[in-house]
Amino acid sequence: MDNSKTLEEKNWSVKDFNYPVPVHAKNFGYSVGGFTVVGFLLLIVTGVIMALFFSPSVDNARQSVLNLISSPWGMWLRSFHRWLAETVTFLIILHISRIIFTGSYAGRRKWNWMFGIGLLIITFAFFFSGTAIKWDQEGYEAYQHSLESLELVPLIGEPIADFLTGGLAVIRLFATHVLILPILLFVCLVPHLALMKLNGLSPIPGKTSAKTIMFFDHINKIIGFSAAIFGLVAFLAAQFPVALNPGPYSGVEITKPPWIFYPIYQLEDWFGIIALVIFPIIVVAGLILLPFIDKNVENIKTRRIVVWSYLLLITIMILFIINVAVLPPVKHLGG
Amino acid sequence: MLKKTITIALLFLFLTPMPIMAQGDKEEEAAEKVEKVTSASLEGEAQDDSTKKETEKDLAAITSEVEKSTVPTVIKAVSLAVIIFGLAYAYYPKKKKEVPNG
Questions:
Q1: What would the pLDDT profile of A19-78 be if each residue is shown by its tens digit?
Q2: Which residues in chain B have their CB less than 8 angstroms from residue A268's CB?
Q3: Taking the domains of chain A in order of start, what are their residue ranges?
Q4: Does 1.20.810.10 match the CATH number of domain A22-248?
Q5: A111 backbone dihedrals φ, ψ, rounded to 5°
Q6: Nearest residue on chain B to A83, judged by CA atoms?
Q7: Which region, left, alpha or beta, applies to residue A226 given φ > 0 means left and ψ of -120 to 50 means alpha?
Q8: Exposed (0-12), middle (13-18) or buried (19+): which is A71, by Cβ within 10 Å?
Q9: Which residues pair with A207 in a beta bridge?
């Protein structure tokens, strides 16, 4: 770009954004964030189409989903949206893993890490609200869990729980899913991407190379791999359509949450509904503190401790997921 | 720093607003009445009783659906673990080395 010109004098073109980036930008691990953005875009497109057929009310929500999936295209669309949600969550976990393994949260990149934590929380909120609004048995039980856990949050919890209780529950969850959360996503994603441009792509610690590729080559790679990843997701959605439970019925607790919530479900088994409040706070606090604990990316010893601690945490979470998967659902509510 | 973090975390656990106890098995408690959730039921109004047969059929279908999810979930969890450990292997912190240019 020509920096000698003022903003008014600059005649911007697409080529101005084709700047050099480090050669490792083409590595799979350094492209996962890009796949996630493509996944979010596909979720928005499929979500907007589904919203045209959705009736967000307690009495009609499930029936409107049932009407949608009575056609083969509607069934595929809903399954694709749900499979995309799982894939994007999966990719975000991989993205965080790569950042932890390469220490990319440290130093001047720590504010980008903070926006990333915001995006992680928003993704889980999307997953929860999307599960609840279909208002089948799984959705209703998720909703009940959220109400009981909100009541344990000091000051703000009870008013929010009251607001979400009653005949307008589904429309309020729907507004959260399609309006509030997308706005928050935009608010966190724009600075996340802008800071990445400002700070440049983080290096692979221990390796220095002056080799570069052009940014558009990196984007082309992301588009190509995304087509392969999400094409496979589209195939899976057609081959394994997502079920819609009957119901909902109050007074029973016979479903489990989506599998990504199983670790917290396991902790809820042990510690009660309070686990839904305490443990996410502990995990988020740990993630926020990480750049302040491990400040120097070149300190191999500290980084190895961080990597092994993270792998231990992941192993425990995977064991929790497997344990919850093989055991029957447990009653938690009304305790 | 680590000691302080652990101490504060434990302090928070003990200051939680309700006692921590196992919540796993509440079958001994009196069973709640199972009824269909509608806008009327959420507003606390009286509602028509759904037929017992339909409710039982629906609950059986949900239970079967939950049972069927076991194997795919285990596969998803294991594949997630394999990919994360693969990434850890690829990016494991190593001592600095120069990569030749060109």
A1: 788 888 888 888 999 999 999 999 999 999 999 999 999 889 999 999 999 999 999 999
A2: 23
A3: 22-248
A4: yes
A5: -75, -30
A6: B76
A7: alpha
A8: exposed
A9: B97
